[in-house]
Amino acid sequence: MAQITQYLIWVVTLVAISSSPDYRVGLVGVEGTAVGVNWGRNASHPLPPSKVVELLKANNVTRVRLYDADPSVLEALSGSRIQAMVGIPNSMLHSFNSSLKAAQSWVHNNLTRYFSNGSSKIRIQYVAVGDEPFLQSYGGRYTPFVVGAAVNIQAALTKASIADQVKVVVPCSYDAFLSDSGLPSKGHFRPDLNKTMTQLLTFLTKHSSPFLVSISPFHLLQQNRNISLSFSLFRETSHPRNDHHKLYTNIFDLSYDTLVTALSSAGFAHMDIIIGQIGWPTDGAVNANSSMAETFMKGFLVHLRGKSGTPLRPHDPPKEAY
């Protein structure tokens, strides 16, 4: 989902949360899953960072995902107690993969400056290395640099003595994993990513970092004629998917468990998962409008609040979702 549409999705998310008293506590956390928002800056008329922070605080948002380390945004977050995931653009991956010094310089200029005496002016929780660098449309352009860049950023955090406070994650795209049958039990990572994923998952496990992934119900709806709009929007459906006696009533559980199977097949069955990006577009295609986006977000939050997890991870919902 392009960053230019993220602002609208973000606004719809806030509307979904605050339109009724039942949803006001959603972004603080839904009893098991901490929920935040993506803060993209590529809007035609972006609000000043200070105003955005006021809006976040007014809606009880306690977590944000940033796509870069814009100083004006980080300064605006200072003292707000909002936890931040700071992003590293794909364009920097080659440099950080090939140069530990470059990674150390970035950490010093963009993270260390906000830490002093063991505490932080800004609650930086994660560094996201790349922005969905495994997207199939990139044709493998960034894949060779991802793990090396993550390793060097981790080393830079360690040298700066903030590795115990800031975790390294790598945002994986919704098309990094798939199922040939359309059912979770056949889930696997894309064959071209097998070696890289093994390296990445080993790295994440070593440092107790979660697996960060985007899930795109709208793209899956467009690509699969066997998926209904009701199934995608958490509406009641009379045709659940049956996968070895496990019933799926919505597209989120189907996608999530496809990833769970892919992780299990790779030998990492118990890895924590964070939903780095999920939403519904507000324009640009059939079924893309603010009303359906609000319906999806409300349904997603109600689903998380139920704490039922998914058929393959019952009562174990994702740790965080943005």
Automatic annotation (TrEMBL):
Domain of life the protein comes from: Eukaryota
Alphabetical list of SUPFAM superfamilies matching this protein: (Trans)glycosidases
GO molecular function: glucan endo-1,3-beta-D-glucosidase activity
Family: Belongs to the glycosyl hydrolase 17 family.
Signal peptide range in chain numbering: 1-19
InterPro entries for the chain: GH, Glyco_hydro_17, Glyco_hydro_17_plant
EC assignment: 3.2.1.39
Pfam families: Glyco_hydro_17
GO BP of this protein: carbohydrate metabolic process
Keyword Cell wall biogenesis/degradation: no
Name of the top EC class for this enzyme: hydrolase
Keyword terms, alphabetized: Glycosidase, Hydrolase, Signal
Organism: Opuntia streptacantha
Protein name: Glucan endo-1,3-beta-D-glucosidase
